[in-house]
Amino acid sequence: MRIVVSNKAGQPIYQQIEDQIKTAILSGDLAAGTLLPSIRQLARDLQISVITTTRAYHDLEEQGFVTNVQGKGSYVLGQDSALVREHALRDIEQYLGQALDAAALAKIPPAELHTMLDTLIAAEGGTDVHE
Q: Which position among 35, 51, 68, 111 has the lowest Cβ density within 10 Å, counted as fewest Cβ atoms?
C-alpha cells in the first residue's frame, strides 16, 4: 500500500491518510483481513508524527474500516455495502454543502449549479441525472 501526503494539499495529513486507506478498501485494493503498516512504521515512512498516524487509524476504526488487535496491529474489516453507501452519501453531502456555500457567496443561481453538475456527470461518462 502506497500513501502519499502533502503539506500543500489543503487538508490535514491525518485526513489524507484516512482518505487514501478508505479509497483502497472501498476499491478492493485492500482486502478484508489485510494487516496495515504499524502506526510507528507508517509515521516513519511518511516522516510525520506518530500522533498523526494514530489519529488516522483511530478515525478509521471508529468508522468501521479497520479493527485494532492489541499487540498485533490494525486489520482491514470487511465492508457491508449499505455501510459503504452511507459513508459515500455522507461525503457527497458534505462536498455538495461546501459547493452550495461557495455558490451562495458568488451568487450563482441554482439553475447554473444544475447545469454545472450535469456537465460534470457527462464529462465523467455518467448518465443524465434526469433519468
A: 111
Whose cell is 478515525? That residue is 59
Cell 472501498, located at residue: 26
8 Å CB contact between 87 and 63? yes
* Tens-place pLDDT, residues 85-100: 777 788 889 999 999 9
Q: From CA 115, how far away is CA 16, in angstroms rounded?
A: 30
**CATH of the domain spanning 13-76:** 1.10.10.10
Q: Are 53 and 15 in contact (CB under 8 A)?
A: no
For the stretch 51-62, pLDDT in tens is 999 999 999 999
Query: What pTM was computed for the model?
Result: 0.66
23: nearest Cα among 43, 1, 42: 1
